[in-house]
Amino acid sequence: MKTLVIGSAIVDIIIEVENLPKRKGDVISKNSLFVVGGCAYNVANILKLLDMQYTLFAPIGTGFFSKIIEKQLIEDEHKIVIKNDTMDNGYCIAFVEPDGERTFVTYSGLEQNFYQDWFNNINIEDYSNIYFEGYKMQNLDALKLIDYLLKLKDKKFYFAPGPVFNQIDKKILKKIMLLKPIIHLNEQEILEYTNETELTYSIKKLYLENKNLIIVTLGENGSISYDGKEFIKVEANKVKKIKDTSGAGDGHIGAFMFYFWKTNNIKEALKFANLISSQIVQIRGTKLNNINFLKELGENYE
C-alpha cells in the first residue's frame, strides 16, 4: 500500500548568517542557497530514496516560483498530480546560524488552498498511510480537507504540525484530533503548544487530544515516543559537524513512516529515523543525494 503525502512544495531561500539581525539592523550573509523545499516535498524525497510507494499531493500553480518547483519535481521524478493556474506557489526564507539552527519567514501561496476535486486525480483506496503538515492547516480551507479525511476508513494518519502548531485555528485542531493521528514534532513545538515546561508531562497532555502515538525529536538528545502506555527514548547518532538542521524533522518522520511500516516496531523505527536525520544535518539544504546509501539502509538496517 502507498503513502499519501499531503502538503507543500515551495522554494527555500537559505541564507547563512553569523547571527540573526536585530530589529532595524543588518547582517552580511556568507553563503546562500536557492532550492525547492517544503515539508511534504522533503518527506517525499526520503520515501522515494527508500523505495517506499508514495504520492506527493502538493499543488503546483503558475508563476515564478511554481515554474522552479515544477522543473525540480520533474527532475526528481515526483509525479505531479495537482496543477492549478489560479496563483503562484510560496517560498520560505531560512536563516541558518553557525550551529545549524534555523529561523524561518514563510510566504504562503497556492499550497495553502484546497479543492476537494483534487482527490479525483488519485484513487484514495490505494493509500494506507496519509501524512499531512501543519502549514497546510493555517487556512480555513483545511476544514474541507479534514472533513474529507474523516470520511475515510482504515487509514493511518501522520500529522507534523511544525512550528505553526499554536497558530492553527482551534476549530481546525479539534477536527484534526478526531482523526487520532500519530503526531510528530520537536521538543520546542510540543512545549509551546501545551504551555508546559516538563517534557513527559507535556507529551501526556497532548496524548489526551490525539489518543495515539506521539513522537518528539530532541536534537542532540535523540527522540522519544509515547503510545499512552510507555515512553521509548532513543539516543541520537553522533555527527561530525552540524551544518544545517533544515529538513531534519521532515527526514525523521519520513524515515519513521518507512521503518514503522516495515517492522511495526516503534523503537527500531525511531533508531532508523534518528540515523537518517543525523545524515541530513550534516549537509546544507534538506536533500540527501546518496541514493545507494539510503537504499542499503532501507534494505539491510537492523
TrEMBL record:
Looking at the record, the residues that make up the Carbohydrate kinase PfkB domain are: 4-288
Q: Name one GO biological process term.
A: phosphate-containing compound metabolic process
| Organism annotation | Spiroplasma taiwanense CT-1
Q: Which SUPFAM superfamilies match?
A: Ribokinase-like
Q: Which GO terms describe its molecular function?
A: kinase activity
Q: Which Gene3D superfamilies match?
A: 3.40.1190.20
Q: Name one GO cellular component term.
A: cytosol
InterPro entries in the record = Carboh/pur_kinase_PfkB_CS (IPR002173), PfkB_dom (IPR011611), Ribo/fructo_kinase (IPR002139), Ribokinase-like (IPR029056)
Family listed? Belongs to the carbohydrate kinase PfkB family.
**What are the UniProt keywords, alphabetically?**
Kinase, Transferase
Alphabetical list of PROSITE patterns matching this protein: PFKB_KINASES_2
| Top-level lineage group | Bacteria
Name one matching Pfam family. PfkB
This chain's protein is named Carbohydrate kinase PfkB domain-containing protein
